[in-house]
Amino acid sequence: MTIEYKEYCVGEADFGASTSLAVKIENGKVTESLDTSSYETNWVWDGGFKDDMLNGKTKEEAQEIMDHWFDDFEDDYRHPYIQENILDARDWTRIKAQRLREEKIRENIKNGVHKSNERYKAQQEHKDVLAEKEELLDSAFRNRNGRKARKPSRVRDPYEKEKNKLRLEAYKKFAKGNPR
User: Fold this and answer.
1) Cα–Cα distance for residue pair 29/97, rounded to 1 Å
2) How many helices (H) does the chain have, and how many strands (E)?
3) Interacting residues of 18 by C-beta distance below 8 A, sequence separation 6+
4) What are 12-65's pLDDT values in tens digits?
5) How many other C-beta atoms can be found within 10 angstroms of the C-beta atom of residue 95?
6) Are the C-beta atoms of 145 and 174 separated by less than 8 Å?
């Protein structure tokens, strides 16, 4: 049983390229092909490689596809080409590990977004409306008396009775089940 590893890289001398495809060949047949592109450039000739695009092809068929990849690309000043690199088993293992790590990161990001939405919904369900309203009253008091005013609980002022009366009415109103 023979196993070969190759990487087909798109190259362009003047403009550069960032597209590549790693291929595992077992007994003359492609068993795995992984898009290893870095997507650093977005030239017309970049892209087009997909995971598993050469799976099931013979070694010769895969080589033929890569040899004629740019047959339809015509340009007077850009000359992209496919460069073939031979990989060893360690390189292939590194590429596979990198792919698994990237997939895990994408999955964690996706799950994290869902979890943060769930946490926000739970927070909205269990928030303390009375504490929120008290903070709004304190904020209104501070705004009325200037930004540097202390919290009402620490300040003795002539309007304290009025403020406490308003606060008590607000507590009664929101304690009855009228949340807003």
Assistant:
1) 22
2) 4, 4
3) 10, 37, 38, 39, 40, 41, 46
4) 877 777 888 999 999 999 999 998 888 787 777 666 788 898 999 999 999 998
5) 19
6) no
Q: Please count the other Cβ atoms lying within 10 Å of the Cβ belonging to residue 104.
A: 10
pTM above 0.85, yes or no: no
Phi then psi for 24, rounded to 5 degrees? -110, 125
Cβ neighbours for 65, distance < 8 A, ≥ 6 positions apart:
54, 57
Q: Is 72 left (phi over 0), alpha (psi -120 to 50) or beta?
A: alpha
Q: Is the model more confident about 66 or about 146?
A: 66
Handedness of CA 165, 168, 173, 174 (dihedral sign): positive
Is residue 133 within 8 A of residue 174, CB to CB? The reply is yes
